[in-house]
Automatic annotation (TrEMBL):
<dbReference type="InterPro" id="IPR039425">
    <property type="entry name" value="RNA_pol_sigma-70-like"/>
</dbReference>
<feature type="domain" description="RNA polymerase sigma-70 region 2">
    <location>
        <begin position="21"/>
        <end position="80"/>
    </location>
</feature>
<dbReference type="InterPro" id="IPR013324">
    <property type="entry name" value="RNA_pol_sigma_r3/r4-like"/>
</dbReference>
<dbReference type="GO" id="GO:0006352">
    <property type="term" value="P:DNA-templated transcription initiation"/>
</dbReference>
<comment type="similarity">
    <text>Belongs to the sigma-70 factor family. ECF subfamily.</text>
</comment>
<dbReference type="InterPro" id="IPR007627">
    <property type="entry name" value="RNA_pol_sigma70_r2"/>
</dbReference>
<keyword id="KW-0731">Sigma factor</keyword>
<dbReference type="Pfam" id="PF04542">
    <property type="entry name" value="Sigma70_r2"/>
</dbReference>
<dbReference type="GO" id="GO:0016987">
    <property type="term" value="F:sigma factor activity"/>
</dbReference>
<protein>
    <submittedName>
        <fullName>RNA polymerase subunit sigma-70</fullName>
    </submittedName>
</protein>
<dbReference type="InterPro" id="IPR014284">
    <property type="entry name" value="RNA_pol_sigma-70_dom"/>
</dbReference>
<dbReference type="InterPro" id="IPR036388">
    <property type="entry name" value="WH-like_DNA-bd_sf"/>
</dbReference>
<keyword id="KW-0804">Transcription</keyword>
<dbReference type="InterPro" id="IPR013325">
    <property type="entry name" value="RNA_pol_sigma_r2"/>
</dbReference>
<keyword id="KW-0805">Transcription regulation</keyword>
C-alpha cells in the first residue's frame, strides 16, 4: 500500500467511527456543556479528525472521544480567555457629560490607539476590528482570512498588548 491509500483508509475508518457513533458523540458533547453548540462542535471534530494524516488507530472510538474531550477543553479555555479579556475591558467607565477638554484628550488618545493598532500590521489590525468592532466570532474570522484559530488569537493578543502599553502611557 502507498502512503496515500493508507491515509484514505485511516480517514474512511475515522469517518465510519464518527458516523456510527454520531448520536453518542453529540450526547457526550452536550453533557460536557456544549448544549446547542454540540452539532457545530461535532462538525468541527469531523473536520479536525478527517483532515489529519493519521495512521491505523488501535481504539478508534476512544481516539474520537478523546479528541471530542480535547475540543471541549479548547472551547472552555477560549471562552475563559474571552471572558477575562472582556471583564478587563468592562472596567473602563465613561463619565457622564465629559467636558470639552476631556473630549479633546479622548480623541487624541483614540488617535494614538488607532496608530498603535495600525502599527501591529494589516492582518492583526483587520482581525481586531472584525472581532471587536464587527462582532464576528474568531472561528469565522479565521475561515474568512484563511488562517488558523490560534493565529487569530495570537494576533488579537498582539493587538491587546499594544493597546495596553498605549493605555499605560496615558497614565504616566
Amino acid at each position: 500500500m502507498t502512503d496515500a491509500s493508507d491515509r484514505t483508509d485511516a480517514v474512511q475508518g475515522i469517518e465510519g467511527v464518527l458516523l456510527a457513533n454520531r448520536d453518542r458523540i453529540v450526547r457526550f458533547l452536550k453533557v460536557r456543556g456544549a448544549d446547542d453548540m454540540a452539532e457545530d462542535l461535532f462538525q468541527d471534530l469531523w473536520m479536525r479528525l478527517t483532515e489529519r494524516g493519521v495512521g491505523p488507530i488501535a481504539e478508534p472510538l476512544a481516539y474520537v472521544m478523546r479528541a471530542a474531550n480535547n475540543l471541549m477543553l479548547d472551547r472552555y479555555r477560549s471562552a475563559r480567555q474571552s471572558a477575562l479579556r472582556d471583564a478587563a475591558w468592562s472596567d473602563v467607565t465613561i463619565a457622564e457629560g465629559p467636558s470639552a477638554e476631556a473630549t479633546l484628550i479622548s480623541r487624541e488618545q483614540l488617535a494614538l490607539v488607532e496608530q498603535a493598532i495600525a502599527a501591529t500590521g494589516e492582518r492583526p489590525a483587520r482581525i481586531f476590528r472584525r472581532f471587536r468592532v464587527d462582532g464576528i466570532q474568531q472561528r469565522d474570522i479565521a475561515a474568512e482570512i484563511g488562517v488558523s484559530l490560534s493565529t487569530v488569537e495570537a494576533d488579537l493578543r498582539k493587538v491587546y498588548a499594544v493597546i495596553a502599553r498605549t493605555r499605560r502611557s496615558f497614565d504616566g
